[in-house]
């Protein structure tokens, strides 16, 4: 059964998005419009930022002609608003990395990322490390992945919600913290949401197996059973001079890891504070 949500009033029309979901998976979108009786609303901001739409086309269940959120919803709306933008869709495993490295440190950017959490993590990890000029970089997550923990923790329960709130000027830019983990072998990684070892880290790795690619959240259940049956999970962690062995260890600053799974309810993704789950 389909549902419908108001996106906003742009030009002379009220725009609605009709969509069909199967669990957490978006099966289809359809943009509908009708003559508006309200005052016109338009996105008229011109602050010099380059608007880029980054679409990780394999996130979630992937894109097809029925659920292509950019082509069906975003592109027609930006055309109505006469808003210039560049659209970039991933074509290879390193597309996000190459895109992040290509950004000009002296240019201001507003980037709408149609994806899940992994794409945002890849993007943050491959930005120019030492920009010569401090530039403005604003990110709007449009959740179309499997978990979407960051977007959910920010209050965006769907790509429609995030886009509607932004287009109707209900969002204000806010800083969010980034963290750097350095492992004993010298490898380092930037994270903004969670850093984990043991069960959780192995679960994320196991879910990358192609056989789970289109299973949605069900893949976590299947992969978890494989890990419990076959993996060694004890992880020795020393914290403030105390050493303990954990099967599950995570540093986290988001309350949600799934829309209905909230392991750290006191966390806030916009505050620079990590909580330890063990």
UniProtKB/TrEMBL annotation:
Transmembrane segments: 186-205
UniProt keyword list: Membrane, Transmembrane, Transmembrane helix
GO molecular function, one term: lipid kinase activity
Domain called DAGKc: residue spans: 45-187
UniProt record, GO biological process: sphingosine biosynthetic process
PROSITE patterns noted in UniProt: DAGK
GO cellular component, one term: membrane
Entry-linked InterPro entries: ATP-NAD_kinase_N, Diacylglycerol_kinase_cat_dom, Lipid_Phosphate_FormReg, NAD/diacylglycerol_kinase_sf
Pfam families: DAGK_cat
SUPFAM superfamilies (alphabetical): NAD kinase/diacylglycerol kinase-like
This protein's name: DAGKc domain-containing protein
Source species of the chain: Zygosaccharomyces mellis
